[in-house]
Design a protein that fits this description.
single chain, about 140 residues, mainly beta, Immunoglobulin-like, 7-stranded antiparallel β-sheet, 3-stranded antiparallel β-sheet, 1 helix, about 10% helix
Length: about 140
């Protein structure tokens, strides 16, 4: 029995080692009607984290010691549809996220904004849910 336990202990450690580095993930994707966007998530600790639309870097930051990061884009996205991915760089090794965020910025600032995160093998998750427009504050008379 003791030899069986010794044989399974290393095998139990192999899946953790085979998992490799932490992939960057989206926790929050907030898009406003004017195209301003905030992305927060998790990555490897102390990594350079970039938001990409295709091959274009939209913004970047460094993750903290716990891997948490938040990026606010300096320039709002123009109206249109975007497929956004994350890329982290640690020690010269760049790793792309398995997740993609699909973002739709309306032509009009009062139009509906949509942001959802997709990951292969998992159901898509709406992050920014379209909401009915609230009317401007009516007189309280």
């Amino acid at each position: 029995m003791a030899s069986a336990n010794n044989a399974t202990a290393p095998a139990a450690q192999v899946p953790g080692a085979a998992a490799g580095p932490t992939l960057p993930t989206f926790d929050v994707v907030r898009v406003e009607g004017n195209g301003s966007i905030v992305v927060a998530g998790s990555a490897a600790p102390n990594a350079k984290v970039e938001i990409l639309n295709g091959g274009t870097v939209l913004g970047s930051t460094d993750s903290g010691p716990d891997g948490a990061f938040a990026i606010v884009l300096d320039d709002p996205l123009k109206p249109g549809d975007y497929t956004i991915t994350l890329r982290q760089t640690v020690g010269g090794t760049a790793i792309a996220s398995a997740q993609t965020a699909v973002v739709s910025v309306p032509q009009s600032p009062t139009g509906q904004v949509l942001a959802m995160v997709e990951e292969p093998g998992k159901a898509a998750q709406l992050i920014t849910v379209p909401q009915a427009e609230t009317k401007p504050a009516a007189p309280a008379a």
